[in-house]
Amino acid sequence: MEKVMIALDYDPTAQKVAEMGFALATAMKAEVILMHSITDIKYYSSMASSPILGYSGVMAMNQVKKDTVDNLITASNHFLDKMKDHLGDKTIKTIVQEGDFSESIINSAKKEHADIIVMGSHSKKMLENILMGSVAEKVLQESDIPLFIVPTKKR
Predict the structure, then answer these.
(1) Where in or outside the cell is it found (predicted)?
(2) Which structural domain, as residue segments, surrounds residue 70?
(3) What is the pTM of this model?
(4) Longest dimension (CA), the chain
(5) CA distance 10 to 19
(6) Residue 149, SS3?
(7) End-to-end alpha-carbon separation of the chain, Å?
(8) Which of 1, 30, 152, 155 would bridge with 120, disulfide CB 3.0–4.6 Å?
(9) Tens of pLDDT along the chain (155 residues)?
């Protein structure tokens, strides 16, 4: 395996997912790609669900304008750059895509010729799983690229 794409979301557990994916890539001496997908701008309207403002790990940030897609792209690029700095590898490539989470992940992995996709799996409320489904589950069902899923459920 030569390329590992790590899909990071808005959850504070993104740091754990990035670290696990980076360790996997390092063990295989593979190139690392950090990827974030931006969906509907309304999704980012609350502090609680902001991919940037809701993050409290090494990525803690003060104020980021979230009123336009361009501002979200800028903030997301900053988010990925900070994660790249945290991992300590300046050769890591970063990608920000706009669109459905699972489709963006799969399309980016195919475009980049990733050999494996690393992503987290969150424990959500039952109603959310029924209505929205799990991004990890959708990627698993629709992708022919192997997945390395990092469980991020809080204990």
Answers:
(1) Cytoplasm
(2) 3-151
(3) 0.82
(4) 41
(5) 15
(6) strand
(7) 32
(8) 152
(9) 999 999 998 677 889 999 999 999 999 999 999 999 987 666 655 544 444 434 444 444 444 555 677 888 888 898 899 999 999 999 999 999 998 889 999 999 999 999 999 998 865 555 444 434 478 888 888 999 999 988 876 55
**Encoding tokens for residue 46?**
């609350």
Q: How is residue 108 annotated by DSSP? A: H
Is 77 exposed, middle or buried (CB count within 10 Å of its CB: 0-12, 13-18, 19+)?
middle
With beta carbons less than 8 A apart as the criterion, state whether 58 and 19 touch.
no
Residue 108 burial (CB count, 10 A):
21
Domain count, the chain: 1
Token pair recorded at residue 82 = 């900070």
Angle at the Cα of 87 from the Cα atoms of 24 and 39, rounded to 5 degrees = 85
Is 36 exposed, middle or buried (CB count within 10 Å of its CB: 0-12, 13-18, 19+)? buried
Q: CATH no. for residue 67?
A: 3.40.50.620
